[in-house]
Design goal:
By secondary structure, this protein is mainly β. It is about 0% helix and about 45% strand. The chain is built from no helices and 34 strands. A hairpin with a 5-residue loop joins strand 26 and strand 27.
Amino acid sequence: MNGRVYVGGGDGVYALDLLSGDIVWRYGIDSAVRSSPSIAGGTLYVGSDDGTLHAIDAQSGMKLWTFKTEGRVTSSPLVVGQTVYSGSDDGALYALHSKTGAVKWKFQTKLQITSSPAYASNILYFGSWDGYVYALDPEKGQIRWKFYTEHGIESSPAVANGVVYIGASYTNRLLALDASTGEELWEYATGYKIISSPAISESIAFVGSTDANVYAFDARSGHILWNYTAAGGISGSSPTASGKIVYIGAEDKNLYAFEKTTGHLLWSFKADETITSTPLVYRGWLIVTSSDNTVYAFANHLVVSTIERNTSAESSVGGQLNLPWNYLVLGGILVAVMFLVIEVFLLKRKEHLFRTKV
């Protein structure tokens, strides 16, 4: 929004100007932010480890309202109309009024909710550590159906063409469920846990597994189309499909780009540490984060410029960067980083990579 990137760190949420890398504003929180922010109607919504859901004015960084739960909020908020939906480690899914934070309804499960909710055809879907995939009425929070997977679910659902796709995380399966009834349509067992969330593109379902494989399935039948074995497991990163390419990061520190129908490896990029985020594609830009608290931005498949920011203390940032650059504006991008040090990578030249520390 307005050429800014919004990031969460160990001490709050930051809005950085993408032309200069300067801090536009900082919203202080006395705990870490692990939830990815969502933005709607000029308001930024994000959860924090102290159990609070925050609504922040995206332009000024001023607090609009907060809502306190009884557990960490690592589930990323979903905004539909005038309602914000978010799960908590207290086992509840909350529906809050987007303007005031007033509770519309609360749905209680037996264990924590780290799965982020999805919405389709007037039904809300999410998973819980109690082993159930839930489908709720978004207006009243009444249950439409639930499906038991036997063990906890960290994966978030994807919904397409009347089907809910979700990783049954600790039974190592990708599930395809009828979105209206919850009936199982097909499943596929991987070699280990599925923490990664699936993505659907042109009747292909993609998912990563901690067995180190990226899988592509026929979304209707569950027939496997291809798989690629990385050198490390896939957990924090979920696939993103854009055009003819699917992107995903792995614990082997690589970001991979595959031709989505064949699985042909187009290119890979070796980061300094594990890729921990889902790749974000926006108007020719590709953005990911890694476990050393770095945000990488690519254009035409190249990393071309960097800035480092330390957000653990306000005194370590601010002022002029004194870098001779010409940046392109990147609007409408939200990036959440869960650690103390934040590095923002932007465009300068296509020939090489350089880094400046502040």
